[in-house]
Design a protein that fits this description.
Length: 301
């Protein structure tokens, strides 16, 4: 099933210093609403079965997003909204918005949560939003963004104390977080395969990766094209037939790094997105991998 992160606008009411999505982008970019509806209809025809409305903050345009969610439901597209929960200051306000989204057919609400978010939004907002989802039977989860430092422990404990559904998600050292001092975290030698769901910006640029891929400014490795110049089917086909993209999904970034000559002890000190940037945002390394893609495809460690 084809899936896509849908960037309806770049507007956000808070400015978290860890944000990977908004750095370097104007904070007032917005897709034309009628154009967005047209694109969603075209996506349904192209076999898109899942859309995640994300960065900036979708609830800044709640009525428009709710209408797009309803359209997706009519077209049989699974929908998710990623939000910082600023709108859930009270249980009543939270119930009102969540119940409307549920009626419009929203499938899942993803609540962003971290020590950075909670400098701007009370953690009780996240609690209200989650409890409203439970009340109205809307699937939710809390994306707990962390650098795995001890100062994150009380934030995690808050979620556990209230028996909320969450999972830890490592901070991506790109965008605003590129200035952070990176922690040397050792992981096991997992493959680090990546689904790489595409990302559509308000300017109709489409990238093959919805995380840090749009920040690969040295190579623009993940850039697929613009919907003003290409059809949705053309861009999805390009995404699905690109050899290196396919190897990221199937072979995994760790194995590609090993093929490229990275030592195992170096590989395990990087998160998936960091390792991906080292490989694919380096013009020299990318040229080498492109030239050796046949050998890479047949290689195993």
């Amino acid at each position: 099933m084809r899936k896509l992160a849908f960037g309806y606008s770049t507007r956000c009411n808070i400015r978290c210093e860890h944000c990977v999505a908004m750095d370097g982008l104007p904070d007032n970019g917005k897709m034309d609403h009628d154009k967005a509806k047209q694109i969603i209809v075209e996506m349904a025809r192209a076999g898109v079965g899942g859309i995640s409305f994300s960065a900036g903050e979708p609830f800044m345009y709640f009525k428009e997003i709710a209408e797009l969610v309803k359209l997706c439901g009519q077209l049989g597209i699974y929908t998710r909204i990623v939000t910082n929960s600023f709108w859930a200051k009270t249980a009543e306000s939270s119930d009102s918005l969540v119940s409307e989204l549920k009626e419009n057919g929203l499938c899942q609400l993803r609540l962003s949560y971290s020590k950075w978010h909670q400098k701007n939004v009370s953690r009780n907002n996240v609690l209200n939003a989650a409890q409203s989802c439970q009340k109205f039977g809307l699937n939710y989860f809390i994306s707990f963004i962390t650098d795995f430092s001890r100062e994150d422990d009380p934030y995690e404990q808050f979620l556990r104390d209230h028996d909320l559904t969450f999972f830890p998600e490592p901070v991506i050292y790109a965008g605003r977080a590129a200035a952070f001092k990176q922690r040397n975290i050792l992981t096991d030698y997992q493959a680090n395969c990546c689904d790489m769901n595409p990302y559509l910006t308000p300017d109709l640029d489409m990238y093959a990766c919805c995380d840090a891929g749009s920040h690969f400014s040295k190579t623009r490795f993940f850039y697929l094209g613009n919907l003003n110049d290409h059809t949705i089917e053309q861009l999805f086909t390009k995404n699905e037939t690109h050899q290196l993209y396919g190897l990221i999904r199937t072979m995994g970034i760790t194995n590609i790094a090993s093929f490229a000559g990275y030592k195992a002890r170096e590989i395990i000190t990087h998160t998936k997105c960091e390792l991906c940037e080292k490989l694919f945002n380096s013009p020299q390394m990318l040229t080498t991998l492109q030239a050796q893609v046949s050998e890479l495809s047949a290689w195993s460690r």
